[in-house]
Specification:
Helix content: under 10%
Number of helices: 1
Strand content: over 45%
Number of strands: 11
């Protein structure tokens, strides 16, 4: 299963980025039946869950990003997104998307987000 994140980059504090996670090789039922989670890992920090959307589009956010980040999915396009607003230097990290399907996890390679002060 191939997951490809994109959209990372360098942004100033207060700015916005939209991350995308594409799953081009997933069949539709696999994609639609998956729970999608965005994680991030800052330098010297543990990987942490940022946002999750399940097959019924129930959503959960980490407290640190609630109100600033928005997760969404487009099953037909086999894409999910993480819209990030009002970014701070503390949001600097490599961001990963993960699909969980029938108890198995599938990870992307990550995309780097750097927020300058």
């Amino acid at each position: 299963v191939q997951l490809v994140e994109s959209g990372g980059g360098l942004v100033q504090a207060g700015g916005s980025l939209r991350l995308s996670c594409k799953a081009p090789t997933m069949i539709l039922s696999f994609f639609g039946g998956s729970t999608w989670t965005w994680y991030r890992q800052g330098s010297g920090k543990q990987r942490e869950s940022v946002a999750t959307i399940d097959p019924d589009s129930n959503i959960h956010y980490a407290d640190s990003v609630r109100g600033r980040f928005t997760i969404s999915r487009n099953n037909a396009r086999r894409m999910n997104y993480l819209e990030m607003n009002n970014l701070t230097p503390e949001d600097t990290a490599v961001y990963y998307c993960k699909a969980t399907y029938e108890g198995h996890d599938y990870w992307g390679q990550g995309t780097l987000v750097t927020v300058s002060s």
